Amino acid sequence: MNETRARFLLGIGLPVTAFALAVVPYLVVRNDLPDRLATHFDASGSPDGSMAPGMFLLATLLMVGVGAALCVWLARNTKPLPASVAPLVGFLAGFFAGIGAGIGAVTVVQQRGLENWAEADGVAALVVVPLVVSLAAAAVAARAAAALPVRAFTPGGDAQPKMDLAPGQHAVWAETVHSVWLERLGAAAIALGVIAALATVWWLIFPTVAIGFLILSLATLRVRADRQGLRVRYGLLPWPTTHVAVGDMAAASVIDVRPMEWGGWGYRGSLKLMKQAAVVHRAGPGIRLDLHDGKVFVVTVDDPDTAVALLNAEIARSPQPA
Amino acid sequence: MLLQVDLASSQPLHDQLAGQLRYAIANGDPAPGDKLPPARELASSLGVNVHTMLRAFQTLRDEGLLEVRRGRGTIVTGDAPERLNFVELARSLVEQARRAGLGDDEIRQLVEAQL
After folding, report:
1. Measuring CA to CA, how many Å separate B41 from each of A174, A281, A307, B32?
2. How does pLDDT run across A64-114, given as a tens digit for each residue?
3. Which CATH number does the domain housing residue B34 bear?
4. What are the extents of the domains in chain A?
5. Mean pLDDT in chain A?
6. Is the CB of B80 inside 8 Å of chain A's CB atoms?
7. Interface contact flag, A171 B7, Cβ < 8 Å
8. Class of domain A173-177+222-317
């Protein structure tokens, strides 16, 4: 997708389609609608909340409006965004627009001809259709946003530190990154889970303890750079690890990590699925690896200069792909 | 923490590693109380035998710069930065005495005479 097409899709195509989905079915069937529309359903699928049709239209338009506004902002924005931000904003924009439009369209079509909102059913379609529509819209918007110009980053370069290593010289750099608040958060999640399990439903203990351990495993990271590459171990267990081989690296760089540019705190993204992953403990210095296949890996550490210098020296003396 | 070894150098590897560890401690990374990465990992990263790495750890334990705590691994001692001065003095004493032709027993006698 080229930039012109992407800007057209975001600025006109998606917003117009979403508004049309929210408004046109309503206008077509508005004379056949009951006095109030069922807008909320209980766990068994029976309606338990309603709205006047006008209010309902306003509510869906508001949701579509938020998504459309974000889309239009992306389309009109001329200042390049960080590469990781634009697709995320696009995804959210598409999702909001799609979910508003989907709920709006399905609700009025389903409840056309009803005498009373309490007779409404078909809640499964009301969940599935808007979800599918919103995910599709999110995917389209994210792809379009990815085609917009991004803030350029030149990996490596002369400005990046590089260690002097003689042919027979080997080096290792190791750092343990520890986050006290992540550790407290993990411990709190486990404690809360145990309390909740004792007080309410016993099986609550499984998800909360699992989440607690997940947070705890991110609280302590062991990062190591050597002639083989960069390795990150999470928590105190030998598994999982992330290993990026020197042979796959095009360049290592010292960067200032702004968590929101990488999707927030924790393990963000996926090297396998999203071509980008960032292990973010805090805002501040970090290592950025640009791989030959375009993938990017980022990890926050206190002393990225030494690690980057070592890795750039190893990259320089490793055989490069043609 | 950064460690380097030169496999081509005539200086024994465990000696190089002990020197690198001291240098790292002198630079405050690792700081007192910090845990060292496992010797096995450091050795495999540097391409040296794990026993060579452990021998360097042992030297620094003897010098009072490292201690092994059960269940916690190898830790930099609290007074390591101050001790480093005396380690350097002792090393230079031994080196100069040897250069002057003194044997190990004579050097021990010299130190004990001052105690």
Report:
1. 10, 23, 16, 21
2. 999 999 999 999 988 888 777 788 889 999 999 999 999 999 999 999 988
3. 1.10.10.10
4. 3-146, 173-177+222-317
5. 88
6. no
7. no
8. mainly beta
